[in-house]
Amino acid sequence: MSTEELREEQQFVSGLYARLDALREEAETAVEASLSQVGNGLQARLERDVMVAEQSGLLAALNAQENGLCFGRLEFRDGRDHHIGRIGIRASDTERTPLVIDWRADVARPFYLATGHTPMGLRRRRHITTKGREVTDLHDEILDLGDTARTGFEGADADEVLLAALDSARTGRMHDIVQTIQAEQDRIIRAPHRGVLVVEGGPGTGKTVVALHRAAFLLYAHRELLAKRAVLVVGPNPAFLGYIGEVLPALGETGVLLSTVGELFPGVTATGTDTPAAAEVKGRAEMAEVLAGALRDRQATPEPGEPLVIAHDDGDLILDWTIAHEAREAARDADVPHNLGRPHFAFRIIDSLTGQLAERIGHDPYGGPNFLGPDDIAQLGKGIAASPEVHAAIEELWPTLTPQGFLDDFLVEPTRLDETDAAAIRRPRGAAWTPADVPLLDEAAELLGHDDSAALAAAEAERAKQIAYAQGVLDVSRASRTYEFEDKDEEDAEVLLAHNIIDAERMAERQEEADHRSAAERAAADRTWAFGHIIVDEAQELSAMAWRLLMRRCPTRSMTLVGDPAQTAEAGGCGSWESILSPYVQDRWEYTRLGVNYRTPVEIMEVAAEVPRAAGNPDFRPPSSVRSTGVFPWARRADDLAAAVAAAVAADAREEGRLAVIAPRELHAELAAELPGVTAGEAPDLTRPVVLIDPRQAKGLEFDTVLVVEPARYGTSDLYVALTRATQRLGVLYTEELPVALKRAEATP
Ligand SMILES: Nc1ncnc2c1ncn2[C@@H]1O[C@H](COP(=O)(O)OP(=O)(O)OP(=O)(O)O)[C@@H](O)[C@H]1O
């Protein structure tokens, strides 16, 4: 083994980090300079914000490179020689020579695709392993069989590097895989398809990690568009989002919002839970029609023969069925959302009532024309339009609604559903919102329409407040002028004031300028934001209503959907890709499949696959595992479950790695009492050594060791998910009964 090779590579990597440090410093200075820049006018402010956002993004990308900045090297037969890294970095010379090539660049592609059979012009491919800034190992593959030069770091093929990565202890956070992306994964990551791309595959095939790398690739390939519009990554629960949250920042990408569907209605935190029946009803596509109908029901008329009588200074006004009906039809004809239709409705009502009053007041008892002229009638109209009683009547018939208010009313007394469905979702007024309510709130917001007037008024009021505040600040600063300053005669003081002190309005503007939020942050606060690309993980779980919400957030339909129908657990889950997608893109979507399991060793997968087979799918074939460990899963009956779990956890204690106890929620308190230091709850800290979670929380996660507790209580897909979370060891503990699929594991000592 040539230490010279290592030394050379170390020299290169050290030089690279020196350049990184210099770039970092430049970016820091640029952020500071942009921040202190005071421009005049909207354009200057905008430019400054863009500069700050850009430089901050660059700085974050540079700061994320402390580990694994450079991980590969390609030597081509024609003499080209490129290092490959997480981001591209150029030298400071005038040509700005590339020092390390971004893994997403075309030049880097042979790193992932070249084989002895198709060497893509390569002579040698090198994997460089680093720890911090230190080069610890090299792995070379000779792709040109005629090449006799050797470095002493040659290995059979890149599988060695892959297996080392797969075998390493888990940390509770997903890591990027730029060094070991496999060819089938690379094709998906770089797929040129612009519309909906479906990535299907069994457990552990890398769907999630591939989708995240695709996001990074798209941000690289279409930076201009996507940095502005941001990318949304949707996952099943907050723990999962925490688990995957470090992958994109490690790849230098920060323009991404990670969210569950339940978090996508700004201002609403969904803390409630639904029964499976309620979630199923709320998720149905027909709920869109049901809500639209319920809203039409809120556009009322008085009963025929029972008019509203409105007291008015000039005499009672009669608002009867005919007037209200005509106004309602006119407002509906305007074909605008409910709240925007209200001015149409109000205008008609006021117009009719004005006519009624004019008719009464100006009536000529001798049959002549009405006494009132247009000016008098306009005056009467103004009086009616200003009448609180008239407004109360309009509000009763065509109320201004908020999505929250409207949905709350609906859930208290659900209409347009049969009694069983209504009973499933009925709930007391003001009860906590649930994740399944969020798509309904979004639907309601669409039906109600965005009434800008209130928001504009609020914005204006806020601005006035800021100006008042700024005025206050100025007053204070005037009051605290130095004695010397006070001593100047009045005229002099005025000159200085005008010269030195910024006016209140300008100061308020400066306060607004402090908004340097990234596109992703602004997107998070804006319900109507259109994302540049959306990635949906565990897509098989989303309901039809959740899809409606997501499609609204992505008018371009540039999406990557990741899922595995065999792992569907949610009652509201939407079924086949065809049924999910055809309402939005017909058949214009692309299907891809990943077939190799990188997580679960073959010993565990053979047991897990028995679960779907025993549940009526005898031909079920799981993805083939890339690893075999020789360690077989075990299953044991316990007398005292909590004690047995505690003993099994203690027996597995090791310095590195993570262990998960997956148990039905109702057993958590009892189990946690016996597991000192365990982390549990809604958002457990997955970086801790021992985690207690329920089967739903286990979705998408992985651990070195998994203990599955009381499996008879799980549904088929929950059990399949739970059994496929381990990278090394799987044990099952039970007191009730062992599902037949797990009988094989019982034989293991
Ligand atoms: N090319 C690769 N190199 C290194 N590790 C990989 C590679 N592909 C996948 N992995 C690892 O395999 C594990 C499983 O990947 P991932 O969680 O993306 O699978 P998944 O298909 O989403 O699984 P599930 O459906 O069970 O949640 C992860 O630890 C991931 O980092």
TrEMBL record:
Ranges of residues in domain UvrD-like helicase ATP-binding: 180-601
Entry keyword Transferase: no
Gene Ontology terms: cellular component: cytosol
PROSITE patterns: UVRD_HELICASE_ATP_BIND
Recorded superkingdom: Bacteria
ATP-binding listed as a keyword: yes
Keywords: ATP-binding, Helicase, Hydrolase, Nucleotide-binding
Annotated ATP binding sites: G201, G202, P203, G204, T205, G206, K207, T208
GO biological process, one term: recombinational repair
SUPFAM superfamilies documented for this protein: P-loop containing nucleoside triphosphate hydrolases
Pfam family, one: UvrD-helicase
UniProt xrefs under InterPro entries: DNA_helicase_UvrD/REP (IPR000212), P-loop_NTPase (IPR027417), UvrD-like_ATP-bd (IPR014016)
Alphabetized GO MF terms: 3'-5' DNA helicase activity; ATP binding; DNA binding; hydrolase activity
Name of the protein: Helicase
Organism: Streptomyces kanamyceticus
Lineage, uppermost ranks: Bacteria, Bacillati, Actinomycetota, Actinomycetes, Kitasatosporales
